[in-house]
Design goal:
single chain, 258 residues, alpha/beta, 8-stranded mixed beta sheet, 42% helix, binds D-malate
């Protein structure tokens, strides 16, 4: 598995296929394995770069980060790989990173997919929730975070399916210090609502019909605000649509790869 050193730490990635470049960015507290089923499906049609952000997955522990500095690290990697312009697809926290990337490096984007995510910043209540999660991970470690979040991540969290097992493994793999840093970064991220109407590029907003963390009405607002935004609601999926319904998510991404 290749890695590159960035100003924020290591980024690990898979880089497979040929054609238009698409970069997949995972959510929290996750890694590139959540995108792997979609990456497989797009492998014959595009150059698919699936990353572990610094501190996540197989990337080494990172320096303290902000969502903006994660976007900067991603830009360093994509430049180094000569993968620009790129179609950027961000899942949840990866969507926050993708929007920060669009704000700073919009000229290097060929398309944007916002998946189970939101443009708005955390409100007061969500920030208080982040602080509680930081205390929880400091006190009890990663599995406590998995247990606190798990039921809201999937449409069917209690089924005996590969998505349920894979997600639990991925979440339990995330180091406590990465969880803490990411929670602080998400808590302090900028509101990107006003950015959306300025993004003059092909865009798709993808959301699981049962997403309880970033629900369909949020996605509808984002796609309406984007000048070229299309909305794709994924049936029988929750907040982890790429893991739950990879065929439908790959299909939606293909609209940006033509
Ligand atoms: C994620 O899936 O990345 C998180 O749910 C995002 C968040 O907590 O805001």
């Amino acid at each position: 598995m290749p890695t590159l050193q960035t100003s924020l730490g290591t980024v690990a990635f898979d880089d497979n296929g040929k054609g238009k470049a698409v970069c997949l960015v995972h959510g929290f507290p996750l890694d590139r394995r959540v995108w792997a089923p979609v990456a497989e499906r797009l492998g014959d049609e595009a150059r698919v770069i699936n990353v572990d952000l610094p501190g996540f997955g197989e990337a080494k522990p990172a320096k303290p980060c902000q969502i903006d500095s994660l976007a900067g690290a991603l830009h360093e990697v994509l430049s180094e790989l000569s993968a620009l312009p790129v179609v950027l697809a961000g899942l949840s926290m990866g969507g926050y990173v993708a929007l920060a990337y669009a704000a700073a490096f919009g000229d290097s984007l060929a398309g944007l997919a916002l998946v189970d995510t939101r443009a708005a910043a955390d409100d007061h209540e969500k920030r208080v929730g982040r602080d509680r999660m930081i205390q929880l991970v400091q006190r009890e470690g990663t599995e406590a975070i998995t247990n606190a979040m798990f039921d809201d991540m999937l449409a069917h969290p209690h089924d005996n399916t590969p998505a349920v097992h894979d997600l639990r493994n991925i979440m339990n793999h995330c180091p406590p210090h990465t969880i803490e840093r990411a929670l602080r970064a998400m808590k302090l991220r900028e509101d990107r609502t006003d950015l959306l109407p300025t993004l003059d590029l092909p865009a798709v907003v993808i959301v699981g019909e049962h997403d309880r963390i970033t629900p369909v009405d949020e996605a509808e607002r984002m796609s309406a605000a984007l000048p070229h935004g299309k909305l794709k609601v994924i049936p029988d999926a929750g907040h982890m649509a790429p893991l739950e319904q990879p065929d439908a998510v790959a299909e939606a991404l293909r609209t940006l790869l033509v």
